Amino acid sequence: MSTSSEDLRAIALGEFATAGYSATSLHRIADIAGLSKSSVLYHFSSKEALLEAAVAPAIDRMEQILEGLESNSLAAEGRAAFLVEFVDFILQYRREVHIFINQGPSLVAVPVIDRANDLVRRLAAFFAANTASLEEKMRFGIALGGAAYMLCTEDSLALQSAPLDETRAALVAILTGLLSPVEAPQKTED
Amino acid sequence: MSTSSEDLRAIALGEFATAGYSATSLHRIADIAGLSKSSVLYHFSSKEALLEAAVAPAIDRMEQILEGLESNSLAAEGRAAFLVEFVDFILQYRREVHIFINQGPSLVAVPVIDRANDLVRRLAAFFAANTASLEEKMRFGIALGGAAYMLCTEDSLALQSAPLDETRAALVAILTGLLSPVEAPQKTED
DNA sequence: AACCTATCTGACCGATCGGTCAGGCACTGT
DNA sequence: ACAGTGCCTGACCGATCGGTCAGATAGGTT
Questions:
Q1: Where is mean pLDDT largest: A109-113, A125-129, A157-161?
Q2: Does position A189 have pLDDT exceeding 70, yes or no?
Q3: Average pLDDT for B121-128
Q4: Is the dihedral of CA A148, A164, B122, A19 positive or negative?
Q5: Above 80 in pLDDT, residue A185?
Q6: Which residue in the set A106, A142, A156 is minimally distant from B23, CB to CB?
């Protein structure tokens, strides 16, 4: 409820995403917030709890999207709707997604990250089940990891300060091209 | 020259890529190698030196590719040749590239990583100079980050144990689709 | 024999890590 | 005035970090 907790959550989220979880000390988070390390541990009982608070909303939303995806049919329009939903998700929670994608494998044994890893695996399994092709699986991995990377590396690349709706439209177009079932593939042999 | 040095380099490369540089202790590297921490520091004067030894070959190769790209013209066939060259590079040095891409921003102040970050920026600037479109820049970022992610997360995704040449062909096809200049863009207003 | 070098090791160091604890301070209700 | 509560703090703890150092061992050279 207090502003400090929310401030700390936001600061931690940014630092965990940019510098990495294990490379970010509680002391550093406290300094940025203008508090002492003890105060951070007053609001969050441990560093793990702070990570959990930072990424939990994104995981909940992700789980919600995935359940809807798995329960519904996979008609072409359903797939397109999912894609827009997923783009909005990744835009809203870009830092959280960046944490899952880049630090998920290294943060096993952290329960909240294990949940995220399971979700990624479920999503991958879903796509793999519908496409046995190696290239399609690779397209999925590139779309997922690439979007997470690109949206959190705007500065280092040349694409800072673009209007959100333009970014959104472009991302939908790119991911559609990457993930849509290839109806007219480059190899039309038969 | 001794096998220990090369073993340590390989172990460190794997651990730095999967667990992260700051999350990997010298003790852990020594344990995997069956040596003591002191022995690791005998072969490499510091943890940073070990990181540098692990990724330097990839950086050298990357720099070589980039110089060739910047000096040559950018005709369509030149671009296609670069893409194949780049795919082979990223396949050979996938773990090193994964380190650059995912831990580059957090490992500033490490000279060898700064070199890598500069190379990524130069590559991004090169693509940005030839394409002012936001979507093209995003495509570049997704291709770069996505390939690095996908090639190092084969296990978590569903695409383990594919023949290398199949992976190579698919990656060339995907990146070609992502990076080839859109000759018939959706916005043809003028 | 003596010597040198390469490789490896345990003991040790200061710094920093995440986390605990007792208490200070301001405010509120009684 | 008093007690309770929310927020914050410095002092402190054990563990682990990267790194140093003085040797131990082995093999090769003379």
A1: A109-113
A2: no
A3: 86
A4: negative
A5: no
A6: A106
> Is residue A47, in this structure, part of any structural domain at all?
no
Q: Which chain B residue's Cα is nearest to A140?
A: B150
Cβ within 8 Å, pair A138-B167: yes
Domain region containing B119: 55-179
More confident residue, B162 or A175: A175
Q: What is the pLDDT of residues A58-99, one digit of tens each?
A: 999 999 998 888 777 656 667 778 889 999 999 999 999 999
Q: Which bases of chain C are under 7 A from a protein CB atom?
A: 6-11, 16-22
Q: Determine if strand C comes within 7 Å of the CB of B42.
A: yes
Please give the pLDDT value at position A76.
61
**Contact status of A100 with chain B (Cβ, < 8 Å):** no
- Pick out the nucleotide with least CA–C1' distance to B3: C7
Nearest CA in chain B to A186: B173
Question: Structural domain tally of chain A?
Answer: 1
Q: Which nucleotides of D are covered by protein (CB under 7 A)?
A: 6-11, 16-22
Whether B142 is covered by a domain: the verdict is yes
- Tell me the count of A-B CB pairs closer than 8 A: 157
Instruction: Write the CATH number for B92.
Output: 1.10.357
Q: Does B79 fall in a domain?
A: yes
Q: Average pLDDT, stretch B52-69?
A: 93
CA A34 / C1′ D10 distance in Å: 15
Asked, for residue A137, whether it belongs to a domain, the answer is: yes
